[in-house]
Design goal:
191 residues, mainly alpha, 0% strand, globular
Amino acid sequence: MPKGLAVTGDAAADQLLNSDPLAALLGMLLDQQVPMEWAFMSPYRLKERLGGLDAAEIASMSPEQVEEVFKQKPALHRFPGSMGKRAHAVCVHLVEHYDGKADHIWNDVPSGDELYRRLREIPGFGDEKTKIFIALLAKRFGVTPDGWEEAAAPFSEDTPRSVADIFDDASLQRVREWKKAKKAAGKTKQD
């Protein structure tokens, strides 16, 4: 059985990530230009502010309303306006294509290529974010459709290079050290 995510430093926030597919998807969405802990803590704070975490409820709000929730102190992202609107767009996409359920993206997906295609259609999910999330689904949650390794490469490797490789404090430190070494060498996570 894979070990779940343990990235926020907060047991309740990590539990939400491990039990609520929307929380994991939104955490991945927000994982840019902020520390991983902050990005993956934000779904928990969003749930507190809204009294629940439901894609249909968020989609029924206006983008501006979601933006305002993101801007409340402490802000849910370094760029709360744009990321609040992007989170709203993700929830609208989920309602329109997956009955408002994030896990419908990956439940019973026939292949890694199809999972990649579905995730790339989500607002805010570029190539690297999609590959990392496929690796996260496989390594942390056991979602391993045929071909997931190729679809997630190089994040499917054992090298501790992304949030997909974090399941405790020691693994978080290994990922940080690896990223620091790559940055010092002028390389990216995919190198």
